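Here is the promised in-class demo. Please do not try to memorize the tokens; focus on the logic of going from shape to residues.
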């Protein structure tokens, strides 16, 4: 692997390596071009054994392994006693993938370690995981988080960020005090770049704005061509692109699917189908309001968020610099959602019949933690925030600002305001 590929380490790698010496098949899923292949190569470098990579986008590879999976693996193993490390890229392209992996796992348990990647959540679930209960562990690799972006661009600045980020996470989970600001100007400048261009590895690697924009445009085209036309057989790409653009306009807002369908000139049925595809290919996802009863929650109107802001902006054909944009509130809220997901959280939102709303609610072991995104700072907090505190009496709350750091108490609740570039 080239030195440049080595530079792009991923936070998830350490979690995956805990399973390196175990028998389970490691399944790595996530959006196309997010770095799954590079991650598998990084993992391979740290493991001992005979390493074989198989690209299942190639028809001949699919045919060979499907025809006789046991003989195929015997050939790869050769005559030595060395453990075979078998890396299968885009495993969902393989017909009967789950059955084939099960056959290989059962036949060569302890002798062959399988790593498999895939770009479609739906196909991974349908074709693979149902056959591998008790035989597989699953990890989701998204595009670069802000921390990973910093680490790739400026490792020294990342070291400062990492401490601040960890302290904010400690506050959310346990109430420990976050660390105060440092190097704010540099971190804010990097954050503004990140929310425009996002975290696709090739885009992060690029230096010039024109190249970043070209790469993002090509990524959007590749997504339509490979995932939508090839995998899901959606031939009317104009309809699909129109619907995706409608979602991009309405991200971080209540998602009324009938309205999005009308805006795109498509049926409600097609809008539902397209939304399922968009979610299952890791482009955007829905979150639901907080209710104690989960079944009640999923019946309510969701909100939609994109998992990479660069792709969202490319779909909208709006690559203006942060300081010239009119959608910075949406960018900020979408960014906070993406980072919370990257931290392993499952954010919901809160909304009352009267219209009071909190951007995100996190359920922790000792109660709820409301998170409000207010670029204007804590002075911009409205009645909704106070209403939530009065209703649920949380121990702590978080206000995400552009660059403010402060602490206050509201009716017994500790409220910290922190800069957005600490997430």
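The designed amino acids, position by position:
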């Amino acid at each position: 692997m080239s030195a440049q590929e080595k530079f792009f380490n991923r936070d998830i790698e350490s979690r995956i390596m805990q399973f390196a010496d175990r028998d389970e098949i490691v399944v790595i899923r996530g959006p196309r071009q997010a770095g799954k292949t590079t991650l598998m190569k990084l993992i391979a470098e740290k493991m001992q054994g005979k390493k074989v990579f198989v690209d299942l986008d190639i028809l001949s590879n699919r045919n060979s392994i499907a025809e006789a999976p046991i003989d195929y693996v015997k050939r790869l193993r050769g005559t030595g006693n060395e453990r075979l490390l078998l890396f299968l890229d885009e495993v969902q392209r393989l017909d009967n993938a789950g059955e084939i992996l099960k056959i290989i796992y059962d036949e060569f348990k302890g002798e062959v370690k399988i790593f498999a990647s895939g770009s479609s959540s739906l196909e991974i679930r349908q074709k693979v995981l149902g056959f591998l209960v008790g035989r597989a562990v699953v990890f989701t690799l998204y595009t670069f988080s802000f921390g990973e972006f910093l680490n790739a661009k400026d490792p020294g600045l990342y070291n400062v960020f990492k401490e601040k980020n960890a302290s904010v996470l400690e506050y959310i989970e346990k109430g420990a005090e976050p660390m105060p600001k440092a190097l704010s100007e540099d971190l804010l400048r990097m954050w503004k770049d990140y929310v425009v261009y996002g975290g696709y590895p090739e885009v992060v690697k690029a230096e010039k704005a024109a190249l970043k924009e070209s790469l993002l445009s090509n990524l959007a085209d590749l997504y339509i061509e490979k995932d939508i036309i090839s995998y899901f057989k959606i031939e009317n790409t104009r309809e699909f692109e129109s619907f995706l653009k409608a979602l991009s306009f309405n991200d971080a807002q209540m998602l009324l699917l009938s309205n999005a369908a009308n805006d795109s000139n498509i049926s409600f049925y097609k809008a539902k189908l397209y939304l399922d595809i968009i979610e299952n290919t890791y482009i955007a996802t829905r979150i639901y309001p907080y209710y104690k009863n989960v079944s009640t929650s999923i019946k309510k109107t969701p909100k939609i968020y994109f998992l990479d802001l660069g792709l969202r902006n490319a779909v909208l054909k709006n690559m203006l610099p942060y300081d010239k944009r009119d959608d910075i509130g949406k960018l900020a809220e979408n960014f906070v959602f993406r980072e919370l997901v990257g931290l392993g959280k499952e954010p919901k939102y809160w909304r009352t019949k009267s219209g009071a709303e909190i951007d995100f609610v996190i359920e922790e072991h000792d109660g709820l933690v409301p998170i409000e995104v207010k670029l204007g700072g804590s002075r911009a907090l409205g009645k909704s925030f106070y209403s939530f505190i009065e209703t649920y009496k949380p121990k702590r709350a978080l206000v995400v600002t552009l660059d403010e750091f402060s602490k206050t108490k509201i009716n017994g609740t500790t409220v910290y305001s922190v800069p957005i570039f600490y997430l």
